[in-house]
Every structure is written in structure tokens, then in C-alpha cells.
Amino acid sequence: MYSYDHKIRVRYGETDKMGVVYHGCYPLYYEEARTEMLRSIGISYLELEQRSIMMPVTEMHVKYIAPAYYDDLLTVRVSLRQPPGVRIVFHYQIFNQNNQLLNEAELTLVFVNEATRRPCRLPQALADVLAPYFDK
Amino acid sequence: MYSYDHKIRVRYGETDKMGVVYHGCYPLYYEEARTEMLRSIGISYLELEQRSIMMPVTEMHVKYIAPAYYDDLLTVRVSLRQPPGVRIVFHYQIFNQNNQLLNEAELTLVFVNEATRRPCRLPQALADVLAPYFDK
Amino acid sequence: MYSYDHKIRVRYGETDKMGVVYHGCYPLYYEEARTEMLRSIGISYLELEQRSIMMPVTEMHVKYIAPAYYDDLLTVRVSLRQPPGVRIVFHYQIFNQNNQLLNEAELTLVFVNEATRRPCRLPQALADVLAPYFDK
Amino acid sequence: MYSYDHKIRVRYGETDKMGVVYHGCYPLYYEEARTEMLRSIGISYLELEQRSIMMPVTEMHVKYIAPAYYDDLLTVRVSLRQPPGVRIVFHYQIFNQNNQLLNEAELTLVFVNEATRRPCRLPQALADVLAPYFDK
Prior knowledge:
The first copy, chain A, is α+β, with helices and mostly antiparallel strands. The first copy, chain A, has helices spanning 26-40, 45-50, 124-134; strands spanning 2-9, 53-54, 57-64, 73-80, 87-95, 101-110, 112-113, 118-119.
């Protein structure tokens, strides 16, 4: 298992008239956190794309527990519980600055070859850096 | 069961560099479609709020099957399969103009009293207009 | 001069905690309105792009006069006051359902050749359909 | 004059099918930068609101010079050139990691009393911390 904490400050424009972060804004937080998680192990998502590998999201499941408010400093905890194959599953927990759990999510992405638009195996570089975290 | 079809045209700003609608934009489509579905049976979500009833999303589950593209004219099919209680579950299917299924989703919202911020029963007016669709 | 009115319903997610449409959401409304204006004269922006002509925004000037609220049914009036050349300038006025003027804007876009990423002349088809509106 | 540099990493969802940051996403960057600028001098925008002072944007003028790309690490330079009164004008320049100027903007906000929704003078605390930067 590999886990990474990333901090995000809530923007005003991400709130709605209920006074809380709009439920539809969290996918952007999840995206930012997994990009930084990959960067933390030396993988640039941008470079993956430049090598013609795309990672579209195929499934997203979010449970909203408590709201986030404007200017909250959120901790987005993103973790990999299984070594990725054709798919990679990111688990999320978001906490506010009082360490209150706000929501949990699970996003599944697939590795896709840009040219063929068909699923492909994960890049070897990514498999290599992740391997130590999933050894028995 | 009550089902309603609502059309949405994809905006340029809703696409991402992959050339398709960003996965995080669909919650806005789901929101717009359920508002119009409620309006179609004479319920204004705005008026619910003005009577101090809020409907936060507590769970969202999306399966992305195929991408939507800029300027696509989407049909968002939103349906209620069970009569709502404290919760209301909206089921979604989005089709493009070629009738291809792009994604499916299920969103759960709860009725909340604005003052107490506690769950409450659904408004009687909403229960009444929906009743005929769920009678045996 | 050519002028076109397009209706847009405000989404919940487009409001912010002030209870009004976030100022940063209007560019999406302007975009949707000019696309529909072009469609009204037989020009598809999507087809322009497919013929390798892009139209990036180079300048945007907005004056916010009054707020828009959730569920407002806005009229976005978009007009061309001058025949386009390498640039095309769209003028906007947004009104709510009470005919109150909410904001005014001016957006400048340039025609760009996708391959060279250099400015280019406007497509002849567009020049032709617009010509009658600017003849003395 | 007071000037502040704030770094923002471009999110995937902020790009559009042109492969660049959508022009309508910059207002969020400007907002984040001015919040951090105020924080840098000890002013919390959140606290201003809690003391019933709102700061709606009344004018926005952006000149787009060059595009930003996914994963760019932008520097948003925000500066105050005049001491604020009823209005406060923020000037912006955004640079990418190669120090290339991407766009310039000017946003005017007004101080508004939340209860009356009328313009009001700027908070004394803000006037006091800014005063040294504008003394002759």
C-alpha cells in the first residue's frame, strides 16, 4: 500500500449557495492529489501523456459525510491498496483542518494507448516504483 | 417509476485536453437534469430551498462508458425507481445524439432542514405528486 | 450589426457562498451564447475547428452590474457590431427574467490556423453569411 | 504599491480541448492569489465576511497573451497600485515556469455591507496594514 497526503485550500468559486464546497468540485481535488502522489514517487502524469498513455476515469464513487467550507485547508489522503494492472484504483479520504473526515471516494482509471484508444498495460516505470509498496 | 429526459449541449469549457468532457463536469449535468425533472412535475427546487429545505448530495456513483465531445447534444435520462423518504435516489443515463450510452450514475440526496441542518421528511407536496408513479 | 438572444438557466453549482452566480462562471455563458449565435447563421464552431481554425479569446472585459441567482432564466444578448477580420469582437448583455441588466461584456477572439498557431483570416463562409448585416 | 507572488499548479480539468487552460478558469486563479496576498499581510478574507463585509467583483479586464498548459507551475503576481477606498483594484500578471508572461488582468472589487448590500468603506484593519505601502 502507498499513501500520500496533499493539502488543498478551498477556493471561493468552489462553494455554492449552500455555503459549502459544491459536491461536483471534489473530482478536481481528487485529480490534483493523485497527480501529486504520482509526482512524489517520481512519475509525471504529464510525461505519461507525452509518451501517449492516457488515464481516463472509468468509475467514481463518492460518499459525502460532512461539508467543506471556503478557505478550509483540506488534507486529501490518496492511497493505492492494490498494485495496478490495466486498471489503477485510487482511494481517497478528505479531512479538514480539524481532522474531521469530510468524504471518502474511490476512483478507477485505466491505462489507454492514445493512438489506438485501447486499454494497455501500465508503464513499466510506474510498475517498478510501486512494486516495493506491494511486496508481501 | 418516474423518468424524464433532458437535453444538454456540451460547452467548450467542459472539455479537457483529452478532447472529451472532463469526468468532473457530469455532476453539473446531473444537477441540471434533476432540477428540470422536478420542474416537470411542478416542483421548484428553488422554492424548496426558500421553504428552508435543502437537498445535499450524500453519495454519487458514476460509471463512465464512453466519452462526450464538444457540441454533443446529450440526453440526460433521470429516473426515480423508488418513492423518496428521508432520502431520494436519482438514477441517470446519458446518451449522445447517436443514442450511444455514455455513462450511468446514481446520486443520493437527503432532505435537510436548513435551520437544524438535520435530515427531515420529504415535503408533502413532492410526496403527493410522486405518489401516482409508485402506486402498485 | 447582428444580434442574437440565447437563454441560459443558472445551475446550482455556478453559484457561490454569496448566494449569487460566481463572477468566474460568466465566460461559460458567453461561450455558449456565441456558439448558438454562430449556429443561428449556419456556422458550426465545431466544424470550424474540424477545418483547423481555432478561435482563442485574446481579451475579455466584463462589467458586473447586478447579480444573477440560482434558477434564474437569463437572456444572453450577443452582438457583432463590426464585420470580423483577423479578430472578431462579441458584445454581450445579460438580462434576468425581470429584464434587469446584470452585466455587459466584450470578448475579442482571433482566428488561428491550428497547424501554424498563427492568426489567419476569417473563413470565407463566415464572412459571407455576415456580410449582409454590415452592408451600408 | 504592494505586490505578492503566488504559485498555482494547473489542473487537468482546467484545460480544454485546445490543450490549454480554458480562458474562463483564470478568475479562479486571480481569486486564489488575492486571498493569499491578503493573508500575507495578516488579513483573512474569510474573517472579513464573518464581520459582514463582502467583496464582489464589479469589473474584470483580462488580456490573454500566451496559453498555460496542464501541469504548468504558474506564478500569479498580484499587486495593489493605489490605496483602496470603497473600491480595491488588483493588478495581475501570470507567468509560467519559463518566466513567460501569459496574461495580464485588472479586477475591481467593492466593499459591501452584507446586511444593507450597499458599498461601504474598507475595514480599518485593512487600511492600516496597507498604509505603509502607499506612503509617499
